[in-house]
Amino acid sequence: MTLEKSAELLIVVTSFSSLVDAKKMAHQLIESRLAACVQIRDGVQSIYRWEGKICDANEVQLSAKTVADKWVDISNFITSHHPYELPEVIAYAPKKYEALYGKWVQAEVK
Question: How confident is the model at residue 7 (pLDDT cuts 50, 70, 90)?
Answer without folding.
Answer: confident
